[in-house]
Amino acid sequence: MPAMSRAITHALIDDPKPNCLMRSCSQQTPRSSGGTMSEFANLEELYSIIEKTARLVDVTASRDKVWPILNAYEDVVGQSVISFRASTGSSADDLDARFTMLPKGFDPYARALEHGLTPKTDHAVGSLLKEVHANTPITSCGVDFGVAGGFTKTWSFPSAENLIKVSDLVELPSIPAAVGANLDFFKKWGIDEMVSTVGIDYSKRTMNLYFGGGVGDRVPAEVFEEKGVRAILGELGLSEPSEELLRFCERSFVIYVTLNWDSPAINRFTYSVMTPEPLGLPISFAPTFERLIKEAPYDTTGRNYVYGIASTPKGEYHKIASYYQWQKRVEKLLRSDS
């Protein structure tokens, strides 16, 4: 990967020209770092962007699903980083919208329950977020929803200077047993002390652990080399890597795993790249991804994208995230390759 700013994958981008939701975007006036999206017209503007973006990837946004979410998080949306993520494979029928860099102390899951966005559950997935926030150095969080399907996930981020240890997560009562079952695997590959994001999917009852992206905490190079990629995926019982994935891994810098409460296995292993020029990646693009890049209904000039390839037992699928709104305050979390 060429020398450029890196960041915790879901939260940060290197973008000098954020979109403006606090004023009319036609004024092209940079939005300040404070304020809230309190005016109904601004939520209407965001919903319009969601609808248009969804159409680019052949998804129909549901007003009945999206509007309750916009209203529920109205007081924090204006301060957040907003991105859209499209996928191939089984997730291609929805577009994920994400509000990240929500303030420390905010509980996105409690807000979802309060507004009836997701049913209350006695499953461990419902208590994990509070445990993560109470016992690890979380400094911000986020929420994820499908524009067709509704609320799905929360995200929790430590500071780039103080990442999370897997050994600390294992101690949490609600953590999937799969995390502890794979602790030796994480140690073997030198990533057990660099968890940069914890994701919790309430609809699928899964969780994600992201590794790398912190200050001085880089995933070891061998994880991205062909020998390492083949060894990792083979050890986990995932599909043989394609030549496309092997070329892609040469540019990757963050990895993440997907686990659940029903199996000790790692269900998915994903390699991720951040780049301002995704069309320059050594991969074949889905038509929907090309449209998202070339025809987004918002200014993407100079913006970074996050592209991921996930390996599963049945094969690979691709994901791309495009950023609509960025926040100046995240710059302190960026670090340089140099």
Please write out the topology.
Layout: H1 40-56, H2 63-72, H3 74-77, E1 81-87, E2 96-102, H4 108-114, H5 128-135, E3 138-146, E4 150-158, H6 166-170, H7 177-181, H8 183-188, E5 195-201, E6 206-211, H9 226-235, H10 243-249, E7 254-260, E8 268-275, H11 287-295, E9 305-312, E10 315-325
Antiparallel strand pairs: 1-2, 1-10, 2-3, 3-4, 4-5, 5-6, 6-7, 7-8, 8-9, 9-10
Keywords: Prenyltransferase, Transferase
Pfam families: PTase_Orf2
Protein name: Prenyltransferase
What percent of residues are in strands? 15-25%
Separation, N- and C-terminal Cα atoms: 11 Å
Helix content: 25-40%
Unreliable residue stretches = 1-20, 22-40, 328-338
Biggest sheet layout: 10 strands, antiparallel, barrel
Helix and strand run: HHHEEHHEEHHHEEHHEEHEE
Estimate the global geometry from the Cα principal axes. globular
Class computed from helices, strands and strand pairing: alpha+beta
> Count of DSSP E strands?
10
Count up the helices: 11
Strand order of the largest sheet: 1-2-3-4-5-6-7-8-9-10
Mean pLDDT reading: 87
Please give the domain count: 1
> In angstroms, what is the radius of gyration?
19 Å
